[in-house]
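>> received
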Amino acid sequence: SEVTNDYFYLMQFWQGSPYPPIAGLRIGRGTARTVTVMTRSSPQDKGQEVTTFSFEPGTWVPLVLGLTVDPDGTGKVDVWRSGKLVAAWQGKMGYGSAYRANDWYRLKYGIYKGNEPDRSFEVKFRNLRVSTKPVGVTPVRQKPYAGETTGGWRTP
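>> returned
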């Protein structure tokens, strides 16, 4: 189904409430498979696009996000898709001291969106990993899981 409200998140990177996430993966209005990696630098900011790409239903895609946030309100986002660097961004990110935001971060994944009656959405995650070093999340090819025809990815 296509999204009929503003957008929905597949993954959110929070600096803490009451403010919205400072980075995330989201699908925009009028699309069903186009994903945007975004950042935010103020609670009023709707989000800056880092990169956009499409997913095909039934196909597993290795995706690695490198997020670095500085307490001064700047950050860096690197995005690898299928082992290739597809975006390297840096700029304003997070809330800095001006907003008195929390100095801790958390990752939330799964569909987060407003209600859309009579619509169905599904997203699947596998082998989610969080690491302070890229080697901790580098995908490795493996044989497909039982019943899967498109292959999968696992930790070495």
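>> The chain has no helices and ten strands.
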